[in-house]
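May I ask for an example protein's residues together with how it folds?

___
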Amino acid sequence: MDAMTQPSRQPLSEGSPSDLLKELTRQAHAEMEAQPALAWFHASLADRPAYIHYLGTMHGFYAGLEVRLATCPEPLPEVLGGPSRTQALARDLASLGMPAAHLAELPRCTDLPECRSGAQRAGIAYVINGSTLGGLVLAARVEQQLGTAASDATRFLRLHGTETKARWLAFRSWLDGYLDQRPDRMAQAGAAAMDTFHSLAAWLEMHYQNTAAMDQAS
């Protein structure tokens, strides 16, 4: 995916760089949130097999994305460090009984945003770090619906645990400093963030359609 494609031109309100990035990506974010695939995945979290399918789908996305992020030639800022989402998902799936051999065979997303600069990496990080607050909400729902079955299988959704909000605020503070007065970085970060939304939306849609097709065939 070409993350260097410029964001659609639209008037921006005054605000911090992270506020402007939110406005730049508002439509892409809204379109992903409105797609039937995401609603289906979230609605299925109360069902153990469907939750395993959800985790497997997210594993396929992040396994590819984290490899892509590692190719960025610029040094990794400390604020972007932290636990691997791919490893957290693998541990969740193992807790739910998925054999390692099956995990290794899960498909991986290849239609991913480019990460050839620190600004592109920042845009991708904006999307995936922004999802951690919502992950806590989903984790509580899974634990309520699945009970003990999910007691050791929400590592991905609770990636940063009690530090989630503090880490998000720290990331936003860093992002504001990194993008401030740098329209070149803002353009690359905005494009990469939108490509990340589009990539995840397409990946979820593909798995949703495949599941629907299998249900119709059964």
About this structure: The first helix runs from residue 17 to 24. The chain has a mean pLDDT of 88. The CA atoms of residues 92 and 153 lie 4 Å apart.
